[in-house]
């Protein structure tokens, strides 16, 4: 039964290591030769990194093989795994479309091809045998020019039936020199009616409060309760939700241990700030959403009541979730009061 939502999952980091390795073996001789044994590749792909920048370099490995022709291959397997192994009812897939275009084209041609990339992702995400509600978040990128990032905003605004929001991705050390650009881009996005999230306050290098007023959700945001708890009142007043991705902070060296997140959850709950628990890069981590839940529970970072609150918040803050209730509430409504309805087995017993 599909019951969960993931609001923060990158297309580039969503491919589990065995699927990516098999793709190399079948379709990319150069990378197959570089990683001949699966065990060695899995250890390389999923090991902890020292910094966020080092961690983000792994995305380039996947982006190099994700293009207009291969995206259906990867997305089908993403949707299949999300439905069967994670019980997802709702999934927002985020990525930078420009980085999936043909690098041999001119910048203008690559910008034009972004629309085709969005179409491919949309079509590939609709898998009848795995009925998940999906939508796309398009990521601007700190390493791309203002012109390209504005084109990404325009693409999102012109295709709201496929795209639910925009984001900004890339190493947060690069925000500083371009912060005025991103303020303008977010202002422009809001003026065009686009919903917004953004990688912000993830590490001590990514703390830019001047972007907060333009965000409807905050990608990560853990440094707010950890280092700037005075901002929680503003976050709560704006009804912003933090997209917390627990395993990421260990993989990037941002936190030394998962238990450090207890302060994040406690301060957010005390301040009335919603949290959605997400995976970020389930493939890079080899950790699916139910295991994120389990890890938080078993380490006494949250309790079951808090977990339920986070799960409900994921649907409440889902940009394209089409219902007013989470699936569990909808299921109860469909079943009705079963205590007064005899089952077939009960009918049989009553007749004998």
TrEMBL record:
The EC number(s) this enzyme carries: 3.5.4.4
Keyword Zinc belongs to the record: yes
Primary enzyme class: hydrolase
Cofactor: Zn(2+)
One family name in Pfam for this protein: A_deaminase
Coiled coil: none
Domain (Adenosine deaminase) ranges: 5-315
SUPFAM superfamilies in UniProt: Metallo-dependent hydrolases (SSF51556)
Keywords: Hydrolase, Metal-binding, Zinc
Family under the similarity heading: Belongs to the metallo-dependent hydrolases superfamily. Adenosine and AMP deaminases family.
Annotated protein name in UniProt: adenosine deaminase
Native species: Cyanobacterium stanieri LEGE 03274
